[in-house]
Amino acid sequence: MNDNQFSILGLKETIVNAIEDLGFTKPSQIQAESIPVTLGGFDLIGQAQTGTGKTAAYGCPIINNITKSEGIKALILAPTRELAVQVNEELKRLSKYEKTVVLPVYGGESIDRQIKALKRNNVDIVVGTPGRVLDLTKRKILQLEKVEFLVLDEADEMLNMGFIEDIETIISHTPEERQTLLFSATMPQAIAKLAKNYMKSDAKHVAIKKNSLTVSKIEQNYFMINNKHRLEALCRLLDLDSPTSAIIFCRTKRGVDELVEELQSKGYIVEGMHGDMTQVHRLTTLNKFKSGSLNLLIATDVAARGIDVEGITHVINYDLPQDVESYVHRIGRTGRADKSGTAYSLVTPKDFSMLKQIQKVTKSTITQKPVPTAEEIHGKKFNGMLSEIKETIDKGDFSKFMPSAIELNENYDPISVIAALIKVKFENESTFEYSSNNLDAPAKKEDVRLFFSVGKRDGLTPKVLINYIKDTTRINGSTIGQIDLMENFSFVTVEESVSAKILNNCPGGNINKKRVNVEIANKRKR
Ligand code: ADP
Ligand code: MG
User: 508 CA distance to ligand 1 centroid (A)?
Assistant: First the structure.
C-alpha cells in the first residue's frame, strides 16, 4: 500500500499515485473532511477559503467513483474561464492513471472546437462556465441526462456574477438522483436557498475556518539580498538556526551541484539530490536524511516531489521557484502534521514581484527579516555554549577530568584557565569567516493596493480612514498613498513595508459600526 497520507481517505491507488506525482503528501483540511463524505455518496456543501485545495477535494472522489461509459458523467461549473482552465488542468493531472477524459468549455473561445470535441462522445467530465454550458446544452450538443456529479465551484462568485438563472436551467437538465457538491467561500442567503432547492436533505456540511491554508502553520520569512551575497546569507541562516532537518531548494540540477560543493568546502555536512543521480544514490541520501544522520539536503523541485519526511524544520528557498505552485509544494514539506515549521526565501530585488505574486495567491504573509549579522550569530552560539557548560556543571559527571583540572589549578589562575577553555571551544565552533558588512539589500520601493471593506456609505472619509489605520498600526502617515473611496468599500495604496502591519492589525475593528476587513486588492480580472 502507498504510504502517502491520502491513501487512508479511501481513494483508489491509481488516484493516490497521481496525487503523489503532484507532490501532495498530506490532505488539506477540506480534503481530509470532504473526500470520505463524497466517496460515500452524500451531497456536500463545502466552505473554505481560496487556496485550500477544493479542486482536489471534489476532483478525487469524482474521478474515483465515476462510471466509465458513454455520456457526460460529471459537470463542473466555475465562474470564470481562468478557473475552468485551472480546474481542468488539475483534474487531468489527478486522473492521469484513470484515463478519464476532461473537457473545458467556456466563452471567448471558438464554440465549434468545443462542439467537435463533445461530438467525439468520449468526454467523461465537462468543466465550464455557466453561460457556455447553457448554450451548448440548449443546442443539445451537451447532453446532461447521464450526469452523476454536479459541482458548483465558487458558487458565491457565480451568483455575484448573475449566473443564478443559467445555473438553475442547467440543473434542470441533469437527473435528480445526481450527487451535488457545492463549494463557496461564503454562505449568503442565496446559496443556502440554492442548496435547499437543489440538494438532498441529508447533504453534509463541511466548513473550514479561515486561515487554515495548507501553509498556515509555517512561519514564512524572506531576506532581501544581492545575488553576490546569496551563499553567505544562506550560511548565516544555517549558522544561526542550526536546523535539525532542512531542505534547501535550488532551481536547477547544476545549482544543486554547485551549492553542495560550495557548502562542503566550507565545512558544512550537506548532500544533494536531483534527477541526474542514480536511484540508489538518491535513496541512500534520502534515508540518511530521514534517519536524521544528514541534517541538510539540497534538492531541485522535481527531486523533492516524492519526499515524505516527518519533522522537517526548515525549508529554504536558495532560489525562489518560478511559479507559485512550486512554492506551496516546497514549503508544504515543513509544518506537517500540526508541527510548526520555518520557511526562508532568499530574494533579490529582481525576484520581488514573484514574491508578491506568491503572497497574493497563497493569501499568506511572508515577513521580511534582516540577514543575521555576525554578532547576532556569535552571540547566539556563545549563549548556547554557556548553557551547555552550565548544564555539564549541574550534572557533575566529569570526574575523569578532575586530575587535569587540579593540575591546571596548581599552576595557573583558575579564571584564566576558564577563559582559555571557552576560547578554544568557541573558536572550534565558529568555522565561517563572515564578511562583516550588513547583507541586506534595499528592496525596490513597491506600493501595495489594499482593499478595505468600508466605504462612503459608512460615512468614511480619507481622514477617518487614515486615523483608523494610524491608530491600529502606529505606522507613519507618510507611508499611506492614494485613497479611493467607493460606496461600499475603498482602496488604499501603501508602501510595501507597512502592508503586513496593516493586514495584521486593521481587520476586526469597526469604523462607524461597520466591521473592517482588509485584503490585498485583487488585480485579477474575473
Ligand atoms: P481552492 O480551489 O481551494 O482555491 P485549489 O484547488 O486551486 O484551491 O488549490 C490551491 C493549490 O494548492 C493548487 O496549486 C493545488 O495544486 C495545491 N494543493 C491542493 N491540495 C494540496 C495538498 N494536499 N498538498 C499540497 N498542495 C495542494
Ligand atoms: Mg477553486
Answer: 27
pLDDT tens-digit series, residues 55-71: 999 999 999 999 999 99
Cell of 245: 532537518
CATH classification at residue 301: 3.40.50.300
Task: State which ligand 1 atom lies nearest to the alpha carbon of 24.
Answer: 24
Residue 439 belongs to a domain:
no
Does position 12 have pLDDT exceeding 70, yes or no?
yes
The pLDDT value given to residue 344: 96
- Nearest ligand to residue 30 Cα: 1
435 located within any domain: no
Helices (H), 296-401: 301-304, 324-331, 352-362, 374-395
Domain boundary among 142, 177, 207: 207
Distance from C-alpha of 105 to C-alpha of 143, rounded to nearest angstrom: 14
Is 244 within 8 Å of 313 (Cβ atoms)? yes
In a domain, 200, yes or no: yes
**122-159 b/e with 16+ CB inside 10 Å = b?**
ebbbbbbbbebbbbbbeeebbebebbbbbbbbbbbbbb
Q: Is 260's pLDDT higher than 90?
A: yes
Q: Do residues 276 and 307 both lie within one domain? A: yes
The ligand minimizing its distance to the Cα of 323 is 1
Ligand nearest to the CA of 53: 1
Q: Is the pLDDT of residue 461 over 70?
A: yes
The answer to whether residue 434 sits within a structural domain is no
Between the CA of 56 and the centroid of ligand 1 the distance, in Å, is 7
Q: Measuring CA to CA, which residue among 333, 297, 322 is closest to residue 217?
A: 333
Query: Ligand 1 site: residues with CB under 6 angstroms?
Result: 24, 26-28, 31, 48, 50-56, 90, 214, 325, 328, 332
Distance 145 CA to ligand 2 centre (A): 25
Closest-lying ligand 1 atom to the alpha carbon of residue 86: 7
Pocket test for ligand 1, best of 35, 52, 331 (most atoms within 8 A of CB): 52
**Atom 20 of ligand 1: nearest residue by CA position:** 53
Split into its structural domains, the chain has a count of: 4
In which domain, by residue range, is 505 found?
447-523
Please count the residues of the chain. 526
Nearest listed ligand to the Cα of residue 9: 1
Res. 431 pLDDT band, cuts 50 70 90: low
> Using 50, 70 and 90 to split pLDDT, how confident is the model at 337?
low
pLDDT of 169 reads 97
| Closest ligand 1 atom to Cα of 52 | 3
Do residues 16 and 162 both lie within one domain?
yes
Helix (H) or strand (E) holding 483: strand 480-485
The protein residue whose alpha carbon is closest to atom 26 in ligand 1 is 24
Which of 371, 389, 414 is a domain's end point? 371
Quick one: average pLDDT of 495-510?
A: 89
Taking the C-alpha atoms of residue 295 and residue 309, their distance in angstroms, rounded to an integer, is: 12
